[in-house]
Write a structure and sequence with these properties.
Length: 189
C-alpha cells in the first residue's frame, strides 16, 4: 500500500462509512424479507437463512458501494487514490415548465396535481488534492417545485351547470406527459 495523506485517509473513512450504511440497510431489508418468506420453515432454517443471506447481501452491497466511490475518488491524472473530491457545483436554470397530472379517485372525484418543473444544466468540478488536476462533469437534472394537489369533487348532472368549470377545462394544454427526467449525459473530460 502507498502511504496516504490525512485527507486521503479521511476520505477513505467517509467512503467506508457511507458504504457500510448502505450495506447494513440493504442487508437488513433482505434479511427481514427472508424472515417473512421463510415464515413456514423451522426456526433454524428461517433465522439461520435470513441471517446468512442478509449478511452476505450486506457485504456485497458494501463492497460494490465502496469500490464505486473509490473509483470516483481516484485521480485519473496522477493515479492517487481517495484524492479527488468535488470542489464546485454550478446549476444553471435552463427551463421552467408547468406540468399537471390528473387522477380519478375511487369516489369519482378528480385529483389534480400541478407543479413547476425546473430543468438545470449542472457542472460539477472535481479537484485532485495531490496533483491539483481539475476535471468537470456536465449533466442535466430536473426538480419539482410549488407542487399543489387539488381535489375536485365529482359533480353529478344536477341541472347541467358548473360541470365544465369544475373539471378544470385546461386539460388539453397538458403536454402529453412527456417523460422529461433527463438522464446523465456525457462526462466532459
Ligand atoms: Zn491527481
Amino acid at each position: 500500500m502507498v502511504d496516504l495523506s490525512q485527507d486521503q485517509v479521511a476520505k477513505r473513512a467517509a467512503i467506508q462509512k457511507t458504504a457500510l450504511i448502505w450495506g447494513v440497510v440493504v442487508g437488513a431489508i433482505v434479511g427481514l424479507v427472508l424472515l417473512w418468506i421463510l415464515g413456514g420453515q423451522g426456526g433454524a432454517v428461517r433465522f439461520g437463512g435470513a441471517l446468512v443471506i442478509g449478511m452476505a447481501t450486506a457485504f456485497a452491497v458494501f463492497r460494490a458501494s465502496f469500490n464505486s466511490a473509490a473509483k470516483t475518488a481516484k485521480c485519473d491524472s496522477c493515479g492517487a487514490a481517495f484524492s479527488r473530491s468535488r470542489s464546485d457545483h454550478v446549476e444553471t436554470l435552463i427551463a421552467s415548465t408547468p406540468k399537471d397530472e390528473r387522477k380519478e379517485q375511487p369516489d369519482k372525484s378528480t385529483q389534480v396535481t400541478s407543479w413547476i418543473e425546473d430543468k438545470f444544466d449542472v457542472l460539477d468540478t472535481y479537484t485532485c488534492a495531490k496533483c491539483s488536476n481539475v476535471t468537470t462533469k456536465a449533466y442535466q437534472t430536473t426538480r419539482r417545485r410549488d407542487e399543489e394537489t387539488v381535489t375536485f369533487p365529482y359533480e353529478s348532472a344536477k341541472g347541467g351547470q358548473s360541470q365544465k368549470g369544475a373539471s378544470a377545462g385546461d386539460g388539453k394544454s397538458d403536454e402529453g406527459k412527456t417523460d422529461s427526467t433527463s438522464g446523465r449525459k456525457g462526462s466532459g473530460r
